[in-house]
Amino acid sequence: MDTKPTGCICFFGAYDLDATHSFYSDSLGLELWKDQGVCRIYSVPGGGYLGFCEHMTVNASDKSPIITLLFEDVDQVYRKLCTAKRSVASKPQYNKKFGIYHFFMEDPNHYTVEIQKFL
């Protein structure tokens, strides 16, 4: 018997699955892996999944949770999101403490989303 996990899905509550899909699939390029009607699950390149469900409570607060997505070209993602009229909270910046280049924004469910590259 193999007792190692075969994957990981982090589930979050969602107000509107269509708006959530537009954000994560259309704007950020995540592939819809499974549509369960009241839940949509997106594949994250490199491993793992993000699930958003209408029947769950949205628990977005000041800085928790943060959904961090890794990209090679943070500036290109920033420009794409600005062109698409997505509300971006900050311009890309270097963070010496963590050795990253990143920016923050809010998704349609008010979760903090960080677009990041490790340096």
Brief account:
The protein has two helices and eight strands. It has 119 residues and is an alpha/beta fold.
Q: What characteristics describe this protein?
A:
single chain, 119 residues, alpha/beta, 2,3-Dihydroxybiphenyl 1,2-Dioxygenase, domain 1, four-stranded mixed β-sheet, 2 helices, 18% helix
What is the element layout, followed by pairings?
Elements: E1 9-13, H1 17-27, E2 31-35, E3 39-43, E4 49-53, E5 66-70, H2 74-83, E6 93-95, E7 100-106, E8 112-118
Parallel strand pairs: 1-4, 5-8
Antiparallel strand pairs: 2-3, 3-4, 6-7, 7-8
Helix-strand category: alpha/beta
Mean model confidence by pLDDT: 93
Instruction: Tell me roughly what share of residues is in helical segments.
Output: 10-25%
Q: CATH topology, which one?
A: 2,3-Dihydroxybiphenyl 1,2-Dioxygenase, domain 1
Number of domains: 1
Order of helices and strands: EHEEEEHEEE
Oligomeric assembly? single chain
- The N- and C-terminal alpha carbons lie at a distance of 39 Å
Q: Within the largest sheet, what's the order of strands?
A: 1-4-3-2
Name the beta content range.
35-45%
Uncertain runs: none
**Count of individual beta strands:** 8
Q: What is the CATH architecture descriptor? A: Roll
Number of discrete helical segments: 2
CATH superfamily: 2,3-Dihydroxybiphenyl 1,2-Dioxygenase, domain 1
